[in-house]
Amino acid sequence: MGALPGKAAxxxxxxxxxxxxxxxxxxxxxxxxxxxxxxxxxxxxxxxSGLLQQLQEGGLGGKTDSWVGTGPNAELxxxxxxxxxxxxxxxxxxxxxxxxxxxxxxxLARVIPRAVDKLTxxxxxPQGSLEEVIAHHQGG
Length: 140
Prior knowledge:
By secondary structure, this protein is mainly alpha-helical. The protein has helices at residues 7-24, 27-41, 48-68, 78-84, 87-97, 101-119, 130-139.
C-alpha cells in the first residue's frame, strides 16, 4: 500500500474523528474510527461502503449485513477486526491512539458496529464521503 501521507492524513483523520465522535457520543471512539478510515482510504475519499467492503473481503460479510440491516446487530471481536483489516491500517490506528494493535482491534470491535448501525438507519448504505453522510444525519 505504501506510506500514508503525513500531516495531510493526520488533519483529515482528526476532522473525520471529530465528526464521528459527535455522531457516536465520544471523541475517543470517533478518533479511532477516523484514523482507521484515513488509513484505509489514504486520505480524502473515505466512505462507509469502502469500510464495509474491506470488512466483507476479510470474511465478515454476515456481520456487516446485520449492522446495515434493521434487525439486531451481530457482535464483533478484536481478533475478527485484526483478521479482516490490513495490518498497516490497524497499526496506524494503534499508533495514533497510543495502544497496541490488539487493543486497537478490541476498541474498534466495539465502535464499528455502532457506527455502521447509526449511519444506516434505513437499512441501506448511503453514498458519498463519510463527511457528507455524517452531515446529513446530523442535519436531518
